[in-house]
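Hi team,

As requested, here is the filled-out complex form for the 5-amino-5-deoxy-1-O-phosphono-D-mannitol run. I kept the field names the same as last time so the parser does not choke. Let me know if anything looks off before we queue the next batch.

— J.
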Amino acid sequence: MSEIVGYIGKKNALPILIEKMKQMSFKEYDSSGILVLSDNKAILVKVVGRLENLEKKLKNKKIEGNIGLGHLRWASVGRVITKNAHPHFDCKKEIFLVHSGMIENHKELRRQLIKEGHILSSETDSELICHLIENYFQGNLEEAVKKTIQKIRGAYAFVVVSRKDPQKIVAVKFSSPLFFGKVKDGILIASDKSIFTKFKPIETKDGEIIVFRRDKFHILKERINFQSENLDKGIYPHFMLKEIFEEPEIIENVIRGRVILEKGMVKFGGLDALKEKLKKINNLILIGCGSSFYAAKFGEILLQEYAKINARSEIASEFRYLDPFLNKSTAVISISQSGESTDTLAVLKKMKEKGMMTIGITNVISSSQAKETDAGIYLRAGTEIAVASTKTFLSQLITLVMLTIYFGRQRSMDLKTSKRILQELIKTSNFIREILNRRSEIEKLAKKYQEFKNFYVLGMKYNFPIALEGALKLKEVSYLHAEGICGGELKHGPIALIDKNFLTIAICPSDSVYDKMKSNLQEIKKGNGLVIAIATQGNREIQKLADDVFYIPKTLEILTPILTVIPLQLLSYYFAVLLKREIDKPRNLVKSVIEK
Ligand code: M6R
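And here is what came back:
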C-alpha cells in the first residue's frame, strides 16, 4: 500500500511533508513525490527510489507554499518509473492528486478516458481519478469529487487539490485508511495515523468527503453508489460463463502490488496494522460456509504444511452451535465472498466476544464482515452475479496461497520456497487462459455423459477441497447428484455404488498422491465404473485408467487446485446448459444466505 500525506495551513508545506514522509518511510516504497501550491503556481517533484533521492532533487530549490501533497509509492498498477510516481495530474495540470489503494475498474476507465480525448501521462490507476475529476470540475472541487467516486470501484484514499479552486484540499476514502488532525498552524491529512504525534487524529469514514481550509474543515457525507461496472453478460450467454472467463484477469488483480518477488514476501495492506501481533499468533481458525468453507479447508492444509502454524477449518453453520476449547493465542480468519452469510457472521461475533483477533477475507468492501473484523483482505474479484461462486472461489484460493506465504515468512519458510511458489503463482493466470481455450473439450465431455445421474468427484490432499467444490457445482447448477470424496475413503464404503451408470471425476495431477489416486481408479475400473480424469499434461499412462482425460498444465503440487477447479466449473456449466437448468439463478438458492 502506498502512503499519502497532505498539509494546509500557515506554514511552508514542504518541510512538514518531508518530515512526515520520513516518519512513514520505514514501510515498503519504491518512489516518492511532492506537490506544493503557492498562489496559482504548482511545483511538482517526483523520483524513483529512496526518499533521499527526492531530498537531493529538492536541494537548493526555493519551494514555498502553504498547501502541499506528498506520496510514497508502492507500485501496484504501472511500473516503477518516475512518471508513475505521485502526485498525478489532469490534462491541463490544474488538478493534482495523491492516492493509496487500488482502482479495480482501471482498465475500463482508461479506455473510456482515452476515447474522450484525455491525455494520460502515466500507466497508473491513480492518474485516472484526476481525469475523472477534470471531467466533472465546474469550479468546485468537492462537487467534482462527489461525482467521481461514483465512477470508481476499489479500495482507495485520495487527497486532491486544484489550481482553479485554490485554498482548499479535498480528501475522501473508501475502505482504505485516512486520518486527519491538527498540527501547529495547520491541518495534516495522512494514510498513517502514527505520524500524528501531538494530537489524536480523526479517522475518516467511508464516503465522507472532507474539505480542508487553512484552519477549518467540513464534511460532506456521500453514499457511494457505484454503477459504472459492466454488469451485462456481454458476449456470454450466462453470467456464470462470463465470470469463469474473467478468472485469469482476477488472478492478476489479486496478486497486483502484493507480491515482493525478490524478497519472497507478500504484502497485504489490510493486515499492516496487525503485522506484529500476527507474528505472535499460534493458532488459526478458518471459517466459512459452502464454497468459502472449501477454500478454508484448502487454506488449513497449506498453512499447516507451509507456514507451520496450527490451522484448522470449521464450517461456520455448524461451528456457531459448538462450544470448543479455544486457545487464547488464536486468530479467526473469516472467509465469505458476500461478507453477509449469517452463519459466518454469527461465528465471528462469538469469537470476538471471546477476545479473538479477527481477519476477514471478502469480495464486498462495505460488507458486514468487513466492518466486524479487526483487519481484512479484499478478494478483488469484481461483482459476482451468478449464484454459484466461481471467480470468487478462485480468488479465495489465490489469497490463501498468498496468506500462507505471509504467515510462513513470518515464521520458518525460507526465501527459496516462497519465491518458487510466488513465481509459479504468477504463471497460473496464463495456465487458466490455456485451459479456457480448450473449453470445447469439456463441452464434448458434458455431451458424452449427459445421461448420467450420479457422480463422485475424487481428490486427495490439496485437491480434496476441490473435489468438494466440484461436487457442489454439479449439485448447484446442474442439479446432478454428486459427492466430493477424498481418494483414500473410496474403499471405506463409497465404492459400493460404483457400476457402469456411475461416473467418477478423478482429480489426479502428477503429485505426491498420484499413485494412491491411480490405485483408486483401478478399483473403479474393476467395478465397471466410468472415469473422467483431470491429469497433468504429458501423463500418457492415465489414458489406460480413465475413459477420458482432461489435461492441465504442469505446476507446483500446491497450486494444482487453482487449475483443476476450472474444468470442474466448466463441466457443471455445460451439463447445466444441456439439461436446460436456470444457470445463473438455480432453484431454491440465493447468492447470500441471510437469516432474518
Ligand atoms: O458469501 P459467502 O461466501 O459467505 O457464501 C457462502 C456460501 O453460501 C456460498 O459459498 C455458496 O456455497 C455458493 N453458492 C457456492 O457456489
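Two things worth flagging: The mean pLDDT is 94. Residues 289-292, 336-338, 341, 344, 387-389, 472, 476, 592-593 surround 5-amino-5-deoxy-1-O-phosphono-D-mannitol (CB under 6 Å).

Thanks,
J.
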